[in-house]
């Protein structure tokens, strides 16, 4: 149907942006703590599940964004330079604490899930 | 200089840094050659070298930042593709994520408390394992410093992406569903991006864990903080 990726992908990203705006609107309207982007994700998931939106309408743009997800984090990550001073001297410990706590969460949350999933798969 | 030109240059530079690091990663695949890390490092070095402020960079950077919202919305698609298995494994995923939320809050809080950091810093580190906008609003409501929280969120995200192969190896985390829950609970969207690169099922599980974690942490963080501090 559509052949030119250079046209179709931006259009589909614009559609995703509209869904995001709807999510933000809902968040502001009800003063929710869940971010607009996550509400948008739930909206799109619901639309797809109820077959209100066929997959082909968004597929290329969505796949493109998911594949290049890390790209969109770059500006936020660069922001670390503004707070580098916090981690001078004793502040270094905060990085160690952050990493240790992250590793702990990953290992425990993952292992508990893995154990429960394997039990289910065997049953 | 014309702000539109600055914006165009910064966007172009960011895209070039990303594409360049993507090529490097394809040729030389290491954890520390992950595109976000290399591209971020290149941009930071450039900014420092030419004395360009972060604010100036963000004249262009904010346009990319603005696409972060729709990029998160896009995660609905892989989630939808894996809906059957998600439904079947919802209880293990929820249990694992809840444990992750409790462990993340209490370990961050207790360790920084024992190390003698100010309550302001402690409040800022508590919500580090959830996605930035949620972490910021939790931090704001408990008395943390919002920009500092954003940095801790980055440490959990980028750090988790860097150390996850090691953590998974030594903790025996081999199952795709377990890995997804671990990544999403510990390292939010950055962990999810790393998971998605390996496997779309693991990435989708990570997406679910990230969302659940955001909800659970924002509900339990204020109470748990009060209890442990």
From TrEMBL, chain A:
The lineage of its organism: Bacteria, Bacillati, Bacillota, Bacilli, Bacillales. Keywords: Cell membrane, Membrane, Transmembrane, Transmembrane helix. It comes from the Bacteria. The chain crosses the membrane at residues 7-26, 32-53, 65-86, 92-110. GO terms for cellular component: plasma membrane. It is a multi-pass membrane protein. Pfam families: LrgA. It is found in: Cell membrane. It comes from Halobacillus alkaliphilus. InterPro entries: LrgA/CidA. This is Holin-like protein.
TrEMBL record, chain B:
The chain crosses the membrane at residues 6-25, 32-51, 63-80, 89-111, 145-167, 205-228. InterPro entries: CidB/LrgB. GO terms for cellular component: plasma membrane. Signal peptide: none annotated. It is found in: Cell membrane. Keywords: Cell membrane, Membrane, Transmembrane, Transmembrane helix. It is a multi-pass membrane protein. Pfam families: LrgB. PANTHER family: HOLIN-LIKE PROTEIN CIDB, PUTATIVE SEROTONIN TRANSPORTER. This is TIGR00659 family protein. It comes from Halobacillus alkaliphilus.
């Amino acid at each position: 149907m559509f052949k030119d990726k250079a046209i179709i992908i931006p259009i589909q990203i614009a559609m995703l942006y509209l869904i995001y705006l709807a999510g933000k609107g809902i968040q502001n309207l009800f003063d929710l703590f869940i971010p607009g982007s996550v509400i948008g994700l739930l909206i799109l998931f619901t639309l797809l599940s109820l077959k209100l939106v066929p997959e082909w309408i968004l597929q290329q743009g969505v796949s493109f964004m998911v594949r290049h997800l890390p790209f969109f984090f770059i500006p936020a990550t660069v922001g670390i330079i503004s707070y580098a001073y916090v981690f001078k001297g004793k502040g270094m410990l905060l990085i160690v604490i952050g990493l240790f706590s992250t590793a702990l969460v990953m290992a425990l949350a993952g292992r508990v899930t893995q154990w429960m999933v394997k039990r289910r798969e065997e049953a | 200089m014309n702000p539109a030109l600055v914006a165009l240059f910064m966007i172009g530079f960011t895209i070039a840094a990303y594409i360049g690091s993507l090529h490097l990663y394809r040729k030389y695949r290491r954890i520390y050659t992950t595109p976000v890390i290399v591209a971020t490092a290149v941009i930071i070095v450039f900014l420092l070298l030419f004395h360009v402020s972060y604010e100036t960079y963000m004249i262009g950077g904010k346009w990319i930042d603005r696409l972060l919202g729709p990029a998160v919305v896009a995660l609905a698609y892989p989630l939808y593709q894996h809906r059957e298995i998600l439904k079947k494994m919802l209880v293990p995923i929820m249990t694992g994520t809840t444990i992750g939320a409790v462990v993340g809050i209490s370990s961050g809080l207790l360790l920084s408390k024992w190390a003698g950091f100010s309550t302001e810093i402690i409040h800022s580190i508590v919500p580090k394992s959830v996605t930035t906008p949620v972490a910021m609003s939790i931090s704001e409501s408990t008395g943390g410093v919002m920009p500092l929280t954003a940095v801790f969120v980055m440490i959990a995200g980028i750090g988790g992406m860097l150390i996850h192969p090691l953590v998974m190896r030594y903790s025996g985390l081999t199952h795709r569903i377990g890995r997804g829950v671990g990544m999403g609970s510990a390292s939010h969207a950055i962990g999810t991006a790393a998971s998605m690169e390996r496997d779309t099922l693991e990435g989708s599980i990570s997406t679910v864990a990230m969302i659940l974690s955001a909800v659970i942490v924002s509900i339990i963080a204020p109470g748990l903080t009060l209890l442990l501090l």
